[in-house]
Amino acid sequence: MSTRVAESPASLADPDELALGLPESYLSAGSTLGSWLTTTDHKRIAILYALSVTLFFFIGGVAATMVRLELFTPQADLVGADTYNKLFTLHGVIMVWFFLIPSIPTTFGNFLLPLMIGARDLAFPKLNLASWYLNVLGGLTTTAAVLAGGIDTGWTFYVPYSTTFSNTAVTVGVMGVFISGFSTIATGVNFIATTHLLRAPGMTWFRLPLFVWAMYTTSIIFVLATPVLALTLILVAAERTLGLPIFDPARGGDPILYQHLFWFYSHPAVYIMLLPGMGIVSEVITCFARRRIFGYEFMVYALVAIAVIGFFTWGHHMFTSGMSPYAALIFSFLSFVVAVPSAIKVFNWTATLYRGQVGFESPMLYVLGYIGLFTVGGLTGLFLASIPIDVHVQDTYFVVAHFHYIMVGATVSAYFAGLHFWWPKFTGRMYPETWAKFAAVLMFFGFNLTFFPQFIAGYLGMPRRYHVYPPEFQVWNVLSSSGAAVLAAAYLMPLGYLTWSLFFGARAVNDPWNASGLEWRTTSPPPRDNFFGRPAVLGKPYNYHPEGAEPVHDQPRMPSQGSLT
Amino acid sequence: MPAWLMPVAASTQAAKVDRIFIGLTLVSAVIVLLVVGLVVTFAIRFRRGSKADRGPLPEVVSREFEIGWTAATLFVFVFIFWWAASAEIGAFSPPKDALEIHVVGKQWMWKTQGSNGAREINELHVPVGVPVRLVLTSQDVIHSFYIPAFRLKRDAVPDQTTEAWFQATKTGTFQLMCSEYCGTDHARMLGRVIVMEPQDYAAWLSAQPEGDDLAHQGERLFSEKGCSGCHAPGSSVHAPSLAGIWGQAVQLDGGKLATVDAAYIRDSILQPARDIVAGYAPVMPSFKGLLSDGEIQALTAYIRSLGAGPREIRTPGVPPLSSRVPGAQPARSPAMVPGAPVLDTPAPAGPAVRP
Fold first, then answer.
1. What domains can you pick out in chain A, each with its CATH number?
2. Maximum distance among all alpha carbons in chain B?
3. What is this model's ipTM?
4. Does A380 contact B at CB distance below 8 Å?
5. Which chain A residue has the Cα nearest residue B15?
6. What is the pLDDT of residues A123-149, one digit of tens each?
7. Is there a contact between A353 and A289 (Cβ–Cβ < 8 Å)?
């Protein structure tokens, strides 16, 4: 597709664009460090976030690498018990709060939400910049906790271990997460306000691209769930520093209460990590199947249903904690129910391919991988929703494998799908497609080799957070660690070729994929104010070719020196 | 299933869990094959430039498809829920004659105490074919008592008791692990469960040092601490009699009902003014700070023994199936010393687990 478009010289981005009187791109609006650190342009803030989440991704990745290396043998040979405990805590805390939760909303959401709805910026540009500073401040605070000796509580900060027994820098680490919570709340408020107030003429709710719906539902979870986590972590910090008896059982506190509060946030947080990825998949699969999304309304209702029901399933993390068996049954039932809208989404993506014109560009490869990994991750969620099985595999590698399939297999695949799909729009450059396809395939196989053996080790009874383990589990750990090496290579490759493309990649045209969204109706990269004039929306999203027709340019393409309106 | 894919199943629950697990695995495999099969088929058949037919679909077909697979998915999922939940409901409460074993987790060891006060560290001897009820608590952080071969896991929570039960179906030695992260040596908080034939278990039990019955300690405390001054029959103070109240509902001042259990007795000793039994004056002083946790446990055991109903008829040499209540006691058994050899006759089957 890209080659055919590129052959048309009229649509190539003209190096002499400026001479033609076009507004300069957002990237050339200032190149000093100060111009970046004080920007209120949602696109530049998205780039700032992209840099910070990439940094945190690799910090968390280094910790994961150490963990997998240590687990290669049943003995403790690389690191000791305490170091290992700090490593997996670092991995979990950084990956959850400073990569997975902010990754897609703050990079793709920030960049694309205004573009997709035809707005010039987010509703509160200064708040948006403040969110980034809070996020980085939180991340650096938590990273400082590592320099101050590390945290050894696990990312869940379970009391009374975290409040009374741990001698590590729990308070500092918890405060970092607390600070970054304000960042996510502010981002959520910003996205909700933007979606309500700044839609272009004709952009009705049921004409929104599904990525916008995904951002909107995610933002609602941000706003409703994050305050609970923030208060809970403040209580942990208060108990540690001021000695307030809140969770300490010796003084009448209830450690189980902590788990309820924590999971009341952290289960919806799983959907914070999941829904944005679903949004990306819907954008990419329609473009490369050249089809309208199958069952648009059902896809919207599914997103909303996941966001709502997801708030009522937190208890399934606590089936073994001694909670009332009747409560456990209700949580189990709701956990099965929340899987239904996820299943609907998978079926609809599959059906979108039907009678399409399926192409296999790299973003599509990531998405096809996503569908497989998400299906496996979702179905193993049903195992964990079944109480008798959960009692056996709770806190084993089965759970570890399950949530990595969802949060890493699926969501990180979607993240890379989006990164490749919108990279020309973000940077105005094309990346080497062969390398991208190779990385996508390698990531899929590396991921499965890493995490599928963990399902088996988990059902055999290997508990998580063990740095030494009974020798009968070694074969599964060797497979898993080998897969992790492949996966690490697959994650490093995009860092290499995408960076290369920034300097040496071919100039991207405005719409290299011949896609239908509004974000493609402007230059690559877009100007500061996104559009020339105000775009108007005339129909439903995903206006790809009609059924039965050859793939054609079915929306008016914007000439490089003209405006859509 | 080959042994390297499925862990050994050695309890009644394990067989049930495995059945559900295999059933779910088959359902999941079908769904994965369906989805992957359709994705691959569509992607190849409708690849760009292929000659496949791409005629329009009527709107109603897509709608019917949508409703159809939503309903089918919901039906399958609710069916699985019903299947798993009914197995769970069937295992809610242990049989009445279950052997009671108290488990205390502490960083980083398991202490167990079963019939006749037999105490063990990181070990648990149980007879095969007999239901065993575990009463768990923790001395410090949250631990989780995990026996993979029994598909059994229950958290041990400080200052709370949780319960679980199992019935072993195979003799042998099985791994016991802590599965809730509990600090530095979490991965070394291991133990083993030794399932023995009943006669071997009886022999093992008779070789254990006789522990003092906790209820007798409580009886002694009951008079030493002055409880009997008011609560003994014939006392001049108007205080409720404690005989036979264990497990019963009592009427409280203000119309509420309370069930007499360990938590109620603990509260009544430490905060006597909180729940007053109807018809009595709130005259009891609080014993907060005057009794240790162990002493409260002993008193609870004593009160419990008063309401235990008719005693079982015991055959000499055969242990009772319900133990008397154990609890904290000064270490006296060699089994209480970490690392001490535990009498283990007859030799258990199965591979030894490192201590």
1. 41-520 (1.20.210.10)
2. 101
3. 0.89
4. yes
5. A388
6. 999 999 999 999 999 999 999 998 888
7. yes
